[in-house]
Automatic annotation (TrEMBL):
<dbReference type="InterPro" id="IPR043144">
    <property type="entry name" value="Mal/L-sulf/L-lact_DH-like_ah"/>
</dbReference>
<dbReference type="InterPro" id="IPR003767">
    <property type="entry name" value="Malate/L-lactate_DH-like"/>
</dbReference>
<dbReference type="Pfam" id="PF02615">
    <property type="entry name" value="Ldh_2"/>
</dbReference>
<protein>
    <submittedName>
        <fullName>Oxidoreductase</fullName>
    </submittedName>
</protein>
<comment type="similarity">
    <text>Belongs to the LDH2/MDH2 oxidoreductase family.</text>
</comment>
<keyword id="KW-0560">Oxidoreductase</keyword>
<dbReference type="GO" id="GO:0016491">
    <property type="term" value="F:oxidoreductase activity"/>
</dbReference>
<dbReference type="InterPro" id="IPR043143">
    <property type="entry name" value="Mal/L-sulf/L-lact_DH-like_NADP"/>
</dbReference>
<dbReference type="InterPro" id="IPR036111">
    <property type="entry name" value="Mal/L-sulfo/L-lacto_DH-like_sf"/>
</dbReference>
């Protein structure tokens, strides 16, 4: 299998995006996110996403050069207007201010409005954790998930991610869709000609299915039944309704298809553990006791496997298939 370094993969993806028409700001931010997915073994958020990025640009549904505009009223809420561009550059523009404001006030929020979303959320909460604050990030998507007990798409996959800073180790991070699986996982199953596990999806008539094609034409299911459905609804309310942006249903209505990246908003919360603890305890030491207790039972912390893969990728390079490498070269040459 071809092996490529993280730096070289980032450079190759950035060159593809520049060739397609993205400006330097967005090509750089997008390339690092895509390459990070491959580096960390998150294939559903790696170079697989390039097709969707380029399709969305070709359809005129994302701005390749809108500059993020920060609206800071010197409060706990920081707004970033993405201008219809992909979200990574908007997040990076507001990140320093969000982390500083959380350290100052104890809690702060970043609202990203009018952004197009395709990426995982863990890079965001990890970036906050690296600045010493805990982070919680969430966003809607477009309607692809039936509510518990329902039969038709209404909710999005509505991911939610959390990060906790650790002084001498990689941050504690989890990131998951509130659907049984990310939509990208079903698309990868379709590409591979593999059936879905039972309980993942319904077909267009509302019947359970293990056929990826039927699932993509029908509805995914929330994880944990009514519990996942409730959490997904919370994401719609907090990261859609509350911030004056689109819900998943409205995003699908505006876009008209699930083959392009959806346009909506995003909410990121940042917390200062020290400010909340207020001297009553050392929150980082207390957290390490909890993590040690979890590991002491033979359990694994979320993100642990991802960091192991990252370390191996950075030391040995990222393994791509011949087909994946040829696809990158074709995009670069085309």
């Amino acid at each position: 299998m071809p092996v490529i370094s993280f730096a070289d993969l980032s450079e190759k993806v950035e060159a593809i995006l520049l060739k397609a028409g993205f400006d330097d700001l967005h090509a750089d931010a997008l390339a690092r996110i895509v390459a990070a997915g491959e580096r960390d073994g998150a294939k559903s958020h790696g170079i697989y996403r390039l097709d969707g990025i380029l399709r969305t640009l070709a359809a005129g549904k994302v701005s390749p050069d809108a500059q993020p505009v920060i609206d800071d009223e010197d409060s706990g809420i920081i707004r970033v207007e993405a201008g219809g561009a992909f979200s990574p550059a908007a997040f990076e523009a507001g990140l320093p201010l969000l982390a500083d404001r959380a350290h100052d006030l104890g809690i702060a929020a970043m609202v990203i409005n009018d952004c197009v979303h395709f990426s995982a959320l863990w890079p965001e909460v990890e970036a906050l954790a690296e600045r010493g604050v805990a982070g919680l990030s969430m966003c809607p998507s477009y309607s692809a998930v039936a509510p518990a007990g329902g039969t038709r798409p209404l909710l999005g996959t509505n991911p939610i991610a959390f990060g906790w800073p650790r002084l001498d180790d990689a941050p504690y991070v989890f990131d998951f869709a509130t659907s049984v699986a990310a939509r990208g996982e079903i698309e990868l199953k379709r590409r591979a000609g593999e059936p879905l596990p039972e309980g993942w999806a319904l077909d267009a008539d509302g019947h359970p299915t293990t056929d990826p094609e039927a699932a993509l034409s029908g509805a995914m299911l929330p994880f944990g039944g009514h519990k996942g459905s409730a959490i997904s609804t919370m994401v719609e309310l907090l990261a859609g309704v509350m911030i004056g942006d689109l819900t998943s249903d409205a995003a699908l209505s505006a876009l008209g298809t699930t083959t392009l990246a959806p346009r909506h908003g995003q909410l990121i919360l940042a917390f200062s553990p020290e400010r909340f603890a207020a001297g009553r305890s050392n929150p980082f030491a207390q957290a390490e006791l909890l993590f040690s207790a979890i590991l002491g039972q033979g359990a694994r912390l979320p993100g642990e496997r991802r960091h192991q893969i990252r370390a191996r990728s950075m030391a040995e390079g990222i393994h791509l298939s011949d087909e994946e490498m040829a696809g990158l070269d074709a995009l670069l040459a085309g």
